[in-house]
């Protein structure tokens, strides 16, 4: 087995993962994660640059993925295959939240004629676990597994609002907010005040902070014991509906679904 690069060895030591940490497995996951909508096909060199991994490691990872049918190659470029979804299906099949929440998203989308999704907090991102599209899916197309920043999204703020003050302050301390539109709030004091306001009112609204042209309304999704586990969110184009006139309607629908789901989420 090849030795770790000095830099990688230092990273492992600093991480505190310990001797049982499988570096090769972690590198393989990094290779999978390098592919995206913007980078659906890449050469070996492209993947090496995207992952900051040595080419021999990337070559072995891509070869293994190809042998397992999780990736395919035309001899020069590599791409993931639909079989990669088996990895996601393991989570989806074992997670009651996704199974129960998906029909709720579909009901909300049908009722409001807007896109609806459910998301969980993962570090500094939200991750979509259920969704239903309506209207303009070309740009408002959250797909299962899609990650978005938590700090400037309604779903993210709805979940963050349920953290304790201490946990929220610790989260904000390490946050590195990036400007995404002219409306993005990046000042941490202002963000904290906004999240606390979401806690008081019980819902979050964002207007063009993630992307110009649409706003979102979200509520925390709680399980039976009152623990917040996700957020339900409706995203709508500003040109399709006025924020002021539609928020109340969206909010009522979101709250009804969240309340109905609560006894089912064990």
UniProtKB/TrEMBL annotation:
Xref: InterPro entries: GAF-like_dom_sf, HTH_MetabolicPath_Reg, Tscrpt_reg_IclR_C, Tscrpt_reg_IclR_N, WH-like_DNA-bd_sf, WH_DNA-bd_sf
A single GO BP: negative regulation of DNA-templated transcription
Keyword Phosphoprotein: no
Residue ranges constituting the HTH iclR-type domain according to the UniProt record: 22-82
Pfam families documented for this protein: HTH_IclR, IclR_C
Gene source species: Enhydrobacter aerosaccus
Keyword DNA-binding: yes
Annotated ranges, domain IclR-ED: 83-266
PANTHER family named in the record: HELIX-TURN-HELIX TRANSCRIPTIONAL REGULATOR, ICLR FAMILY, TRANSCRIPTIONAL REGULATOR
Annotated protein name in UniProt: Transcriptional regulator, IclR family
Keywords for the protein's UniProt record, in alphabetical order: DNA-binding, Transcription, Transcription regulation
Single annotated GO MF: DNA binding
Organism superkingdom: Bacteria
């Amino acid at each position: 087995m090849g030795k770790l690069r000095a830099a990688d060895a230092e990273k492992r030591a600093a991480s505190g993962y310990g001797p049982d940490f499988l570096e090769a497995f972690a590198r393989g996951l990094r290779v999978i994660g390098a592919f995206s909508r913007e980078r659906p096909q890449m050469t070996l060199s492209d993947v090496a640059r995207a992952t900051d991994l040595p080419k021999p490691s990337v070559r072995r990872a891509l070869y293994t993925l190809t042998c397992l049918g999780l990736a395919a190659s035309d001899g020069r470029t590599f791409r993931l295959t639909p079989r990669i979804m088996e990895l996601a299906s393991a989570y989806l099949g074992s997670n009651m939240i996704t199974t129960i929440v998906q029909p709720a998203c579909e009901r909300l989308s049908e009722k409001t004629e807007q896109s609806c999704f459910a998301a969980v907090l993962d570090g500094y991102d939200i991750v979509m676990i259920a969704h239903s599209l309506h209207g303009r899916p070309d740009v408002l197309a959250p797909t299962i597994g899609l990650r978005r920043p938590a700090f400037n999204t309604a779903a993210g703020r709805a979940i963050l609002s349920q953290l304790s003050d201490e946990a929220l302050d610790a989260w904000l301390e390490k946050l590195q907010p990036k400007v995404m539109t002219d409306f993005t709030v990046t000042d941490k004091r202002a963000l904290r005040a906004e999240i606390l306001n979401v806690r008081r009112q019980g819902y979050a609204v964002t207007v063009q902070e993630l992307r110009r042209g649409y706003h979102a309304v979200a509520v925390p999704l709680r399980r039976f014991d009152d623990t917040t586990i996700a957020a339900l969110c409706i995203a709508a184009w500003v040109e399709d509906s006025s924020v002021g006139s539609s928020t109340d309607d969206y909010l009522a629908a979101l709250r009804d679904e969240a309340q109905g789901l609560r006894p089912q989420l064990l």
